[in-house]
Amino acid sequence: MRAKTLVALLVTALMLTPVQAGDVTVSQSEPAEDPQQPNANNTTMYMWSNGMATEWTHFNTNETESVEEGELTEEKDNGLINIKYRFTMDPTLDKRLIMTEGAEMRGNFNVYYEGDIDNGGDGSCNNDCEYLNITVYRGPNKVFQHTEQPWPAENWKNIVFSYTMTEEDGHLEWDKSNDNPVIEVTMKVKGDYQSGGILGLQGSGSPAGFGFKLGEEARLEMPIDESTWDEDFQAGIDAMPEEDTPGFTLVVASAAIAMAVFVNIGKEEETEA
């Protein structure tokens, strides 16, 4: 019977010993962080373009595929320039994000124009023109739009704006590629320049022009909350109470069974004695 008692004690000890899956001596190397994705130290997006009707955005301050001069320009002597740039995040967002409620999303852009943008009055617009609009999208969902009032033509202007994130607006959580960020820039500028013709006379009117700087001079700061970087949140796992930790109940139940075996053996020994 002493042998049975010893076996029961060994079984009990084994049941109570924590079990770890896999070889704990093998280090699991994590993949390198993609600098084009947001992280705890970088929550600012930058706008880029190849100058050929392709625009994109990501979280890296460097981009070798963007135009070398660092800005987009369009010109037209007479007629309408219709600006519509869509800076879609590329590579696609691969993280879940939570914005801090009550914090501000801040935009900082540098824009130039010449010509007419104000409908009505003595200008040439005839309701064809449109002020500068910068709109932020969470996937297909519009987060907010900033409209900049006219400023003196033939001048660059630093456009600064902010938007407070609230739970009521429904834009605090961003679900990876389903909510891939998009920044849309629109504006309609009209020129009415007329040359002096073959006689070489002085021209009249003003041409239309538009300029948009890229990289660090076209950025959107996102108020990403620190809880975003929690591994369980990124894995889509809700926090659970300690007593419901996977495996905990199984260990307790196994220990109880082992103890019951030990007690029964003890009773058998007492009966035989």
What does this structure look like?
With about 270 residues, the chain is an alpha+beta fold. It folds into two domains: about 1-15 and about 230-273, no CATH class; about 45-225, Jelly Rolls. Helix content is about 15%, strand content about 40%. The chain contains three helices and 15 strands. It has helices spanning about 1-15, 230-235, 250-270, and strands spanning about 45-50, 55-60, 70-75, 80-90, 95-100, 105-115, 130-140, 140-150, 155-165, 175, 180-190, 195, 200-205, 210-215, 215-220. The strands form three sheets. Strands 1, 2, 3, 4, 6, 7, 8, 9, 11, 14 and 15 form an eleven-stranded mixed beta sheet that branches. It has a two-stranded antiparallel sheet with strand order 5-10. Helix 1 packs antiparallel against helix 3. The longest helix has 25 residues, at about 250-270.
SSE arrangement:
Blueprint: H1 2-16, E1 44-49, E2 55-58, E3 71-76, E4 78-89, E5 96-98, E6 104-114, E7 130-138, E8 141-148, E9 155-164, E10 173-175, E11 181-192, E12 194-196, E13 201-204, E14 208-213, E15 215-221, H2 231-234, H3 248-272
CATH A-level architecture of the largest domain: Sandwich
**Rg of Cα set:** 32 Å
| β-strand amount | 35-45%
Overall mean pLDDT? 84
Main sheet: strands, sense, barrel: 11 strands, mixed
Low-confidence stretches: 21-27, 240-245
Which structural category do the helix and sheet elements fall into? Answer: alpha+beta
How many separate structural domains? Answer: 2
CATH fold group of the largest domain = Jelly Rolls
The helix tally amounts to 3
- The counted number of beta strands is 15
Q: Helix-strand pattern, N to C?
A: HEEEEEEEEEEEEEEEHH
Report the helical percentage. Answer: 10-25%
Shape category: elongated
At the first level of CATH, the class of the largest domain is: Mainly Beta
User: How far is the N terminus from the C terminus?
Assistant: 10 Å
